[in-house]
Design a protein that fits this description.
Number of domains: 1
InterPro entries: Calycin, Nb(III)_bact/plant, Nitrobindin, THAP4-like_heme-bd
Family: Belongs to the nitrobindin family.
Number of helices: 0
Domain THAP4-like heme-binding: 13-163
Strand order of the largest sheet: 1-2-3-4-5-6-7-8-9-10
Order of helices and strands: EEEEEEEEEE
Motif (GXWXGXG): 21-27
Radius of gyration: 16 Å
CATH architecture: Beta Barrel
Structural class: mainly beta
Distance between the termini: 8 Å
Oligomer: single chain
CATH superfamily: Calycin beta-barrel core domain
Number of strands: 10
Strand content: over 45%
Shape: globular
Protein name: Ferric nitrobindin-like protein
Helix content: under 10%
Length: 164
């Protein structure tokens, strides 16, 4: 599917423009405190001409045949483009965790790390994270590393998504 840059794209969003749209695919989750699992996922990046994208993601656990077993995570927020390829991601999770991420975007790659994390009383104890998004052969690949539950920063989820 051909992708065209929107005419009203804010210049600070140029390095992340490739992310716009809806992406769907499959991924893998693993962590010392959980059993490994497979999931389906949808990511949506939209914009209105201002220097940010609205971001929404939802996932669902699937069985070995790819059939949905149950709903999983939901997160939403704003990916902000800044001058010079800097980016910020403000993110809220259904689990009660809120995060501020900072980093850079260049050449079809976005690399961000947590700058601040807040959580509600009943939320999981997440203490750090790193995310890498890349445009690889027209697909969106990502990897999310997490530090939580007393564990050091390590791989948590990764996926390959195609533009819908």
């Amino acid at each position: 599917m051909a992708f065209e840059l929107p005419v009203d794209l804010h210049p600070d969003c140029g390095p992340i423009a490739w992310m716009l749209g809806t992406w769907r695919g499959n991924g893998h989750g693993d962590y010392p405190t959980i059993e490994p699992y497979q999931f389906g996922q949808e990511l949506i990046f939209t914009h209105d001409g201002r220097p940010f994208f609205h971001y929404m993601a939802r996932s669902w656990v699937v069985d070995a045949e790819g059939t949905k077993v149950r709903d999983d995570a939901i997160e939403t927020g704003f990916l902000r483009g800044l001058p010079g390829g800097k980016v910020e991601l403000l993110l809220s999770h259904e689990s009660g965790v809120v995060e501020i991420w900072i980093g850079e975007a260049e050449g079809g790659k976005v690399e961000i790390v947590t700058d601040a994390i807040g959580r509600t009383e009943g939320a999981p104890e997440v203490t750090g994270g790193k995310r890498l998004y890349g445009n690889v052969e027209g697909d969106l690949l990502y990897a999310y590393d997490m530090a939580a539950f007393g564990e050091a920063l390590q791989p948590r989820t990764w996926a390959r998504l195609q533009r819908a």
